[in-house]
Structures are given as C-alpha cells and as structure tokens.
Design a protein that fits this description.
The complex is a heterodimer of chains A (357) and B (326).
Chain A (H helix, E strand, L loop, with lengths): L24 E12 L8 E13 L4 E5 L6 H8 L7 E6 L2 E2 L6 H7 E4 L13 H11 L4 H14 L4 H4 L9 H13 L5 E5 L7 H18 L2 E5 L3 H7 L2 E6 L2 E7 H6 L4 H8 L40 H5 L5 E2 L6 E2 L24
Parallel strand pairs in A: 3-8, 3-9, 6-7, 7-8
Antiparallel strand pairs in A: 1-2, 1-4, 4-5, 9-10, 10-12, 11-12
Chain B lengths: L2 E12 L5 E12 L3 E5 L6 H8 L8 E9 L2 E2 L5 H7 L4 E4 L3 H4 L6 H13 L3 H14 L5 H4 L9 H13 L5 E5 L7 H18 L2 E6 L2 H7 L2 E6 L2 E7 H6 L4 H8 L48 E5 L2 E4 L2 H9 L1
Parallel strand pairs in B: 3-8, 3-9, 6-7, 7-8
Antiparallel strand pairs in B: 1-2, 1-4, 4-5, 9-10, 10-12, 11-12
Helix pairs in contact in B: 4-5, 4-7, 5-7, 7-8
The chains are: A alpha/beta (357), B alpha/beta (326).
Chain lengths: 357, 326
C-alpha cells in the first residue's frame, strides 16, 4: 500500500534512467527459432521466426513494424515483452537488462502491450473496472485507489465510467473493448506501449477514432509506441520510423517518409505497390510480385527474398546481404542492389573510401 | 443492359431470443457483366444480403420478405431441388476463409470434379479434365500436381485460387464474393483481385463483391452500394461515389480512410457506434451520429433520392443536391 497517499493518482511512472540520448529500447541480434516435427522419416525442422533482428526505439518516438503473416512481427513483440524466452540476443530497456539491473516485474511496469483480439485479451469474468484495476493492485495499489484509477482511465479513453465500469467484456463492442485494453495497458503508467495489430480488427470508422485516441494519449502521457501492423496506410500515418520485416529478418528500416518515397529493398517496393489504389482511374494493372510468402520453416538460403525478387542474381542466392546504411539519416536496407560495389549488376558504383561489404 | 438480379424491398429478420432486423427494405439491381460492390462495416447487412441471394440463411430462424429474382426466377419460391440446381450453376459464391469453405478430406481435384459431375452430368474423366483446366485458369503453378493436393497442403493465396476455380467450374452467370481477399496478405490480395477482374472479363460474369475496404472496391467494382444498418444508404457508379459522395455516412466512411492522411493531423471520424438492430428503423438510422442531422431526420424515414441517372442516396440532404444538378 505504497501509493495510497495519492488516491486519485496513477502509479509513479517508471523513472527515466538513461536520459534522452539513451534509447528506450535497444534490441541486438534477437533470435527465436521454433523446432517443428518433420515428416516421419525426415529430420526435425526449424521455423526461423525471428533471426538476428536489431533495432532501437528512441524515447518519445513511434516505431512501426510492417510485414506479411509469418514475417516474425508478433514473435518480436512477444520476445520484447518477455512472454517467451529468446534463443539469443539482447533486449535492453533504458540501459537495463532483465535479469541483471531490471526485474521482470519492473520491465512489465515500464512496457505494456495491446493485442489484436480485444475479446480474448480480457478476462470474461471480470468487469471492465476490475480488469483495468487488476494490474495496479498486483503492483501494490489499494483496491479503492485502483478502482478510482480505472474509472479515470476509462474517461481518458473516451468511455463514460458510469456506463461502462460495471459491464463485462461481452457486453460492449469491439472498438469499445479495444479502448478498454488500451486503458488497462496505461494503468501501470508504462513508458513504452507495444500495439500488436491493435486496430486491425476494427471497422474503418472506429479505427480512425482509436488512432486519434492513441495520438492524444501519447501526448498526454509522454508515451513511446511500437506499432505493429500489416496496414501500410496506418503505419505511415502513425509512425516516425518504420521497420520492414520479411521471413524473420529486417530488410529495410528508416524514417517513414524516406522509406515510402525511396524504398531501397524490392520487397518494400512490392509491399507499397500492392496497396489498393485510392483513385478509380488509376487502378493497379500488374501485380507487383507473384507467389505467396514462403514458409518460414527452413527459409531459402542467401537473401530470403530472392525466390520472389524480380532482380535476383546468382549472388543473392549464395550470400546474405547485411543491413547497410544508405544515408546519414538512419535509412538502411539489406539488399545487394543498395550496397555499393556488392557485385550485383544494379548496385551503385563503389565510392572511394567506402568500406561496404 | 438486362438485369440479372432484381431485389425489391427485401427484409430479413433473425428470430430467436431477440429479433434482429438485419436487412431493411433493400432494393438492388445487378446488370449483365457488371461488378457491384456492397460496401459497409461489420453488421451492416452486406453478407446477409449475399447469403439471401443463394438462400444460405438458416431456414428456421430467418424470416425473409420481399422479392429476390435471379434471371427472372423467384429465388424465394424455389424448392430444394430447384435450389441445388441453381446453386453452383447459375450463382456461385466464394468466401473469406478458403480453409473453412473447402472440404479438408477431399483433394482439390476431387472437389472440383464432384461439382462438374453433379451439375453437368459429365463422366469422371471429363470432370477431372475440367478440374485441371480450372486450376490452370486461376494460375495455380504445376496445376497437374495440385489436383492431388489437400487444402491444408496449400498456402492461403493458393487455397483462395482453388476456391475460385471451384466456384467457376460450372461457368456460373453470377459470382458472389464475400470478402474473398480480407484474410490474405497484401502482396497476395492484389494478385487475387487482379485475377478476379480478369476472370470476370473473360467469363463475362456479373459479380457482387462484399467488402469493408474502399481500396479493394476501387480496384474491382463498377458500381457501389454503401450499406448502413441493413439499408443501402447510397448507390451509384464507383466514380460517382468516390468523387462526390452525398450521404453523410458515405462521406464519413471515405474521409476516415487513412489513405495519404498527414502524420500528426487528426483523422476525420464518425462519432458514436452503429445502432442496435432490435427494431425496424422508423427514422434515419444514421441520424444519431450525423453531424448535419435536422429535426425531421429523427421523425420519419428519409426518401431515396435519385441524384443522377445512376446515383441515389437515402438522405434529406440529397434532395437539395439533386435540384442542384437538374
């Protein structure tokens, strides 16, 4: 009962340890493989769900992750939340690592997640107020204070507490439930919120409402978002920087406008070109790439995209391109066509003094 | 242009613990070789309308009133025998989840051949040849080998192609598509949309395409009907609706899509949530959420106003829009 002195207040936000220059989240070499049973006589196979993924999220920014199903975006989110152990790699939250200078309990205070399925992520036997108050109570808040906080947060997410606090999850609509999930995530005063396809299941008009709400909450609580979605329009709208993933790897990352205006990886170009048109007179005439994303079980060697890439050359099947800086603004791509002097016929010429791979 | 589908004053009620007024006074025409989009959010009645066209709704719990005519035949009066001849041959349907729509215990080839044998009385060999031809038509690579595949052995995009092959096996005049690309990845969705567009032209079919995604409708439809609370609130040519929507709901829906919205700028939204369908509407269903509602909107049903030769909207505001044009 430590926080009873401010019954109207929230839990004390997790302190900023590293200062503004320290990334809130630093991920290096994150890897997760799942073994799967092979056929009766064949060897065990491996799903390379997340393979050597590195990125950083600065304080106060919104980072988007895009990619198709099976690209590892949700596995990445679960690894970050420590909902499953990673095989290798490091997840550093504000300069601290879980198990060393940070307890799992404190990490979960500082980092919260909103899932796609708004119904499955709420306990059907708790009222909405109880669901939101549950987290703060686990972290030592008194019952009365936690319920007051829950009602206050309901107001913040645009649901009138007197109408909603005592209802059960099945009694409200999907958009309202997702607002409840957002309120619940905020109840622990986190600094980082991971939104895993949080608006994907909502109708378009409701999706716009929730996106506006997320923008308001970000400003009010000084939040940092990691926004995972397959919808490129939404990611462009909400993100400052974006990561494009394909079969467990990051193929391109950079400021959203740089990636949209000048995609350097052919997969990014294909994803952008695959968006349905918004102009009846400019319909898509040719599909940007053919085929389905390959199975992440035993992905192709070399560049994983080479099986669908219109520009693939023998080099691409033999060697794996590394994420390489394209400019000084943090735009990076893992494609031999973007790496000077890589040996790909479309690669830019190597400039003097450049030591690219 | 003759109308293949004529729906007049269709009302659909689901009875049970509570009554749901799923479709209210809906009238619709589908011309030959035309792709009509039914656009709306969840619960707007678009899928129910589609299922009523094929009489796929649970018989005991559904009350259907009005008239549904396909090629001049009264669908609501058909007996079981007439229905099963009608389904698959005249009208056929593809669904959102091919994994659920295909039978898991039969190979793809077997399922297509069965339809052909059943409807056209072909021999086993002829039917298998048609199955192979269909898989080639929908561009499934190494089609011959795929005849022997079970649905679970195929990827999502491949399964959707197989379902399209199955639906088109008997060359139906009308294809009903219920969000067939919603569950697919972006790069696969566009391939399936382009395939459907091409097959529609090649086979000269008429298509009713249900979707909640305006981008998808723009890629494939000639005409669009926007649905809200079981009613068509606006219908017209795709260009007419996208460029100059009249009904406030259609306007809001178009404005709230995030196409090219500027980062940091607020998105336009429609406040509130759709109404419950416990009662048949006695006034404009959208009035409680409408920013330009007038006192009269909550009192009586709005008129269905013809704004242009092929553009109508159910809104009092459309009356001034129509006088502006004429």
């Amino acid at each position: 009962m430590t926080d009873v002195d401010t019954p109207q207040g929230m839990l004390e936000p997790v302190a900023d340890v590293g200062g503004a220059a320290q990334p809130l989240l630093q991920v290096t070499g994150l890897t997760k493989h799942f073994p799967v049973r092979g056929d009766l006589f064949s060897a065990r196979k491996t799903v390379r769900a997340v393979d050597n993924v590195s990125f950083a999220v600065m304080k106060g920014e919104t980072v988007g992750i895009v990619g198709e199903s099976g690209c590892g975006k949700s596995t990445t989110a679960r690894l970050l939340m420590h909902l499953m152990p990673c095989d290798s790699g490091a997840i550093i939250y504000d300069g601290m690592q879980v198990g060393r200078s940070l307890s799992l309990r404190d990490l979960r205070r500082g980092m919260q997640m909103v899932f796609q399925d708004s119904y499955a992520s709420l306990n059907p036997r708790l009222t909405i107020e109880e669901s939101i108050a549950f987290g703060p109570k686990v972290h030592g808040m008194a019952d009365g204070a936690a319920r007051t906080l829950a009602r206050e947060l309901l107001g913040k997410v645009g649901l009138r507490p007197e109408n909603f606090a005592n209802r059960y999850p099945h009694e409200i609509s999907g958009g309202q439930r997702q607002r409840v999930n957002i309120a619940r995530a905020l109840a622990l005063s986190p600094r980082l919120v991971i939104l895993d396809e949080a608006v994907s299941a909502l109708d378009k008009s409701v999706e716009a409402q929730v996106l506006n709400l997320l923008a308001d909450l970000k400003r009010e609580f000084g939040l940092t978002y990691l926004f995972i979605s397959h919808d490129l329009n939404v990611v462009r709208y909400i993100s400052d920087r974006v990561l494009v993933m394909y079969l467990g790897e990051v193929v391109e990352l950079g400021p959203v406008d740089a990636v949209w205006d000048a995609p350097a990886h052919p997969y990014t170009s294909a994803l952008l070109a695959a968006m349905p048109s918004s102009d009846p007179d400019k319909r898509t005439e040719v599909p940007p790439i053919s085929g389905d994303p390959p199975n992440p079980i035993d992905p192709p060697p070399g560049c994983r995209f080479h099986t669908r890439c219109p520009f693939a050359e023998p080099l691409c099947a033999q060697h794996t391109p590394k994420l390489t800086d394209l400019d000084t603004m943090g735009h990076q791509a893992a494609c031999y066509m973007a790496i000077p002097g890589s040996g790909h016929s479309r690669a830019p010429a190597k400039t003097t003094g450049d030591n690219a791979a | 242009m003759t109308d293949l589908v004529e729906i007049d004053n269709l009302n659909i009620r689901f009875t049970g613990d509570r009554t749901v007024h799923a479709v209210n006074d809906l009238s619709l025409r589908l011309g030959e070789g035309e792709v009509l989009g039914l656009l709306g959010e969840s619960g707007s009645g678009k899928s129910v309308t589609l299922r009523a066209l094929m009489r796929l709704l649970p018989r005991k719990r559904t009350q259907i009133a009005g008239s549904v005519k396909v090629l001049g035949q009264d669908v609501l009066a058909m007996d079981d025998e007439a229905l099963s001849a009608f389904r698959g041959q005249t009208v056929s349907m593809i669904f959102q989840e091919p994994a659920l729509a295909l039978d898991p215990v039969y190979t793809i080839g077997r399922q297509i051949a069965e339809t052909v044998i059943r409807h056209e009385g072909k021999s086993e060999r002829e039917a298998m040849a048609r199955a192979l031809e269909m898989l080639e038509v929908v561009r499934i690579p190494s089609a011959k080998r795929r005849l022997e595949s079970y649905p679970h052995e195929m990827s999502g995009g491949m399964r959707q192609r197989a379902m399209i092959a199955l639906a088109l096996a008997c060359k139906p005049k009308i294809l009903l598509a219920d969000e067939p690309t919603t569950a697919l990845d972006a790069t696969v969705q566009i391939q399936i949309l382009l395939l459907l567009r091409e097959l529609q032209r090649e086979f000269g079919m008429s298509v009713i395409f249900v979707t909640h995604d305006i981008g998808v409708a723009i890629e494939i439809c000639d005409r669009v009907a926007v649905m809200y609370a079981g009613q068509i609130v606006e219908q017209g040519t795709l260009r007419g609706i996208v460029r100059a929507p009249v009904h406030p709901y259609a306007k809001g829906l178009l404005a709230s899509t995030i196409h090219g919205a500027k980062r940091g700028a607020r998105l336009e939204t429609i406040p509130g949530t759709p109404p419950s369908l416990d009662h048949a509407p006695a006034s404009c269903s959208f009035a409680p959420r409408c920013s330009v509602a007038q006192p009269g909107c909550a009192e009586k049903l709005p008129p269905n106003v013809q704004i242009a030769p092929d553009h109508a909207a159910r809104c009092v505001l459309a009356e001034s829009a129509s006088t502006a044009i004429t």
